[in-house]
Amino acid sequence: MCVLIVEDIIQSPMALGFAKTMENTLNRKFKCVETGKIIGDIEKLCKQTGLGKTTLYRYIKMGKSCRGNHYIVVKDPHPGRGMAKPIQCQETEKIYDSIGQAAVIAKVSPQALSQCLKGKAKTCGGFHWCYA
Questions:
Q1: CA 52 to CA 32: how far, in whole Å?
Q2: What pLDDT does 112 receive?
Q3: In angstroms, what CA-CA distances link 72 with 15, 16, 112, 120?
Q4: Cross-strand partners of 73
Q5: DSSP state at residue 66
Q6: d(C-alpha 112, C-alpha 98), whole Å
Q7: What is the pLDDT of residues 40-90, one digit of tens each?
Q8: Taking a C-beta distance cutoff of 8 angstroms, is the pair 127, 93 a contact?
Q9: How far apart are CA 101 and CA 110, in angstroms?
Q10: Cβ burial 76-100 (10 Å sphere, 16+ → b, else e)
Q11: 16: pLDDT confidence band, cut at 50, 70 and 90?
Q12: Contact status, residue 98 vs residue 105, Cβ threshold 8 Å
């Protein structure tokens, strides 16, 4: 007779890693990229979108839209690190708070956008970028 202990499955290293990452993300504030509105916690965001915590976490991590809006995690500034600089798309003249925010909207990697801002590439995602 084989007895399956559910706790062993839940406590696997892979599940623990995902749970820890999700817990760290869910304890932060979130910002709607389109409206600029800051949502205080994951519970409010769940009610606003009608989606569960895990689904929201995955959408945010992959940069997908949640009910028509993109959300990013508002990171606390770390001591010793520079603050995010606003950047601008020259074609649309829209200003973004950070490289990460612009990368989500433009559907490009933050690294590629950074290379463009440093002058190592002329365009990124078909747009010209500069610091605002």
A1: 17
A2: 93
A3: 23, 23, 19, 27
A4: 30
A5: B
A6: 14
A7: 888 888 888 888 888 888 888 887 888 888 888 877 655 445 677 889 999
A8: no
A9: 9
A10: eeeeeeeeeeebbbeeeeeebbbbb
A11: very low
A12: no
Long-range CB contacts (< 8 A, 24+ apart) of 37-46? 38/74, 39/71, 45/71
Two structure tokens written together for 122: 């002329």
Element (H, E) at 30: strand 29-32
> How would you class 101 by CB atoms within 10 Å of its CB: exposed for 0-12, middle for 13-18, buried for 19 or more?
buried
For 61, the token pair is 């991590």
- Triad 30, 108, 26: Cα angle to 5°: 20
- Contact status, residue 115 vs residue 87, Cβ threshold 8 Å: no
Residue 130, CB half-sphere, CA atoms under 13 Å: how many? Answer: 5
Q: CB-based contacts of 83: which residues, under 8 Å, 6+ apart?
A: 77
